Amino acid sequence: MSRQEPRNVPPIDEWSRLLDGRVAVVTGGGEGIGGAIARLFAQHGAIVEIAEIDPARAATNAAAIAESGGIANAHVVDVRDQADVDRLRAGVLDTHGRIDVLVNNVGDYRPLVRFADSTPESWQAMYEINLRHVFAVTQAFLTAMIESGGGSIVNVHSVEGMRGFPGEPVYASMKAAVAHFTTSLAAGYGRQGIRANGIGTDLTQTPQVDYLRTDDDHSDRWESWAPVGRLGWPDDQARVALFLASDMSSFVTGHNIPADGGTKAGGGWFWSGENQRFLNRPPVD
Ligand SMILES: NC(=O)c1ccc[n+]([C@@H]2O[C@H](COP(=O)([O-])OP(=O)(O)OC[C@H]3O[C@@H](n4cnc5c(N)ncnc54)[C@H](O)[C@@H]3O)[C@@H](O)[C@H]2O)c1
After folding, report:
1. CATH top-level class for 17-279?
2. Residue 60: CB partners within 8 Å, gap ≥ 6?
């Protein structure tokens, strides 16, 4: 193969299964956005390694994938725990001897602490759930991915890492760090076959961000809320992850794509005089 040809890119007629035979690790792959990514990757032929803290979520999603004819293995791990990350690495590499795709998806804004009330302990917690594990899991698999002939790293962060977030600057800083880690990783390891891209998510219905909870119905407000005029779903994020993980994006690296229904483009913050704070939805008068 000429050095100028793309790596591992199949002929276009083989692209109905975009990840055929690839080994893909998805952190937080039991539910929410990670759960949808795991299912879509499996539909596209990947062998999916679900790294999930919740045993029931891990088992349920792995079983759903198996029932629909896919392949998935569940690893019950807390990605904040280095020993768990080491165990995940060993489990995946001892079984397959390779890794082709890594999705770092775990993250959380909770508990939401206003900066004036925050503490060194709350900063540390934000670091551990949103940033440290991205370093740890990436480092655990990077060398093996290079030795596998290259691969794709997809980091799910937040649109709040790509714009100012008045409500929680510490969380936003962690997400911005994930985005910049992604860009820097891409610049450093592209020659060794590694692509790295990020997804700046927003407005997506998941267990963590439950827009449909019955005590807070705002179904009539989406039109004025998101530029696309609707709520986002985990599958909206999973399709972006599939593009970035697969050879469809073989010449794309180092970028962070807002998958946000247009909120970054549209600004997204509205001042509420009544509440004396910014809201990420139009105030109700
Ligand atoms: N949903 C949104 O609109 C939205 C907006 C901005 C950013 N995000 C980001 O997208 C990512 C996914 O969010 P989501 O809404 O699907 O979250 P979620 O909480 O609904 O799902 C996360 C999954 O990860 C698992 N998990 C949590 N902590 C873990 C740990 N320490 N180790 C292993 N697994 C763990 C959970 O059990 C769950 O299955 C996160 O990084 C989040 O910050 C989401």
Report:
1. alpha beta
2. 30
Q: How far is residue 50 CA from its own chain's centroid?
A: 13
- Contact assessment for residue 271 and residue 278, using Cβ atoms and an 8 Å cutoff: yes
- The model's pTM: 0.93
Is 171 part of the annotated catalytic residue set? yes
Q: Whose CA is nearest to atom 36 of ligand 1?
A: 28
Q: Which numbered atom of ligand 1 lies nearest the CA of 203?
A: 3
Summarised one tens digit per residue, pLDDT across range 73-130 is 999 999 999 999 999 999 999 999 999 999 999 999 999 999 999 999 999 999 999 9
Give residue-wise pLDDT tens across range 211-253: 988 667 777 777 667 788 899 999 999 999 999 999 999 999 9
For the chain, the C-alpha Rg in angstroms (whole number) is 19
Which residue, by CA, sits nearest to atom 22 of ligand 1? 28
